[in-house]
Amino acid sequence: MTVLIDSCAWIEYFQGSQLGKKVDAYVRSDEEILVSTLNITEIYSYFLQTKSQKANAFIEFIFEKSFPIPVDTEIALHAAEYKKEKILGIADAIVLATAEKENAKILTGDNDFKGFPNVIFLES
Questions:
Q1: What total number of domains does the chain contain?
Q2: Domain limits at 11?
C-alpha cells in the first residue's frame, strides 16, 4: 500500500502525541510513504512559527522517510475541480489530487477528509 501522510499527521508525529504514535506505525512500516510538496511547506511553516529549533531536522527526516510529490499541472487542475466539487480548501484539494494520481491512501486527522474514500482517518 502507498500512503500519503498529510501535514497534520506529520505534526502529530513530531509532537509525540497519541495520534503521532499511530503515524509512527506507518513511518516504521514497509509501506511506500509519500508527502506533497505543499505539505512540506505547511509543516515547515508550522514549526518555524512555533520557533522550533528542530524545524530543519523534521523536514530532513521527512525527506529520508518519504517521497516528495511536487504539484504538477495535472495535480493542480484536478485540485481545482475537487475544490469546486467537494468544497475543500485548496491545500486539501491538492493533497486529494496528489493521492489520487499516486494511487495512495491519505493518512490524516484533518476533519475535512473525514468520510472520504481512500482516507485512513486518525482518531484518538
A1: 1
A2: 2-121
